[in-house]
Amino acid sequence: MALGASSAQAWTRSGGGVGPRGGTWSSSGSGGCGGGSCSHSRSFTGPRGGVVTNSGQTTCAGGSCTHTGTTTGPYGGTVSRSSTVTR
Q1: Where are the domains of the chain?
Q2: How confident is the model over 24-66, as pLDDT tens digits?
Q3: CA distance 50 to 31
Q4: Which pTM was predicted?
Q5: Shortest CA distance to 79 belongs to which of 68, 66, 67, 65?
Q6: Do 15 and 26 form a contact (C-beta atoms < 8 A)?
Q7: Which of 31, 33, 58, 68 could form a disulfide bond with 9, CB atoms 3.0-4.6 angstroms apart?
Q8: Contact by Cβ (8 Å): 47, 72
Q9: How far apart, in whole angstroms, are the C-alpha atoms of residue 58 and residue 65?
Q10: What's the CA dihedral at 30, 24, 79, 86 to 10 degrees?
């Protein structure tokens, strides 16, 4: 993520738990906004050790906002997406 933790709009989160069969999971994330752009990064680790990561950025200027993002699954497959909204 390009934004530092000192950003006034920065956030972080983390969590975890134990599932019904005793497996544990955990998640963490961070993000922030500044200069007309917001970005985030998240990670989830499942009870079998598989990791899913997700990151994205939204930038707004001149009446339109563009979002790009990437999600990577536990087996290495990646999905990328992009969209633009114009007011």
Answers
A1: 52-87
A2: 999 999 999 998 899 999 999 999 899 999 999 999 998 899 9
A3: 22
A4: 0.76
A5: 68
A6: yes
A7: 33
A8: no
A9: 7
A10: -40
3-state secondary structure of 57: strand
The b-or-e profile of 31-61 (16+ CB within 10 A means b, else e) is bbbeeebbbbbbbbbeeeeeeeeebbbbeee
Taking the C-alpha atoms of residue 57 and residue 40, their distance in angstroms, rounded to an integer, is: 7
Task: Give the CB-side neighbour count of residue 20, counting CA atoms within 13 A.
Answer: 0
Quick one: which H or E segment has residue 67?
A: strand 64-72
The values of phi and psi at residue 59, to 5°, are -125, 130
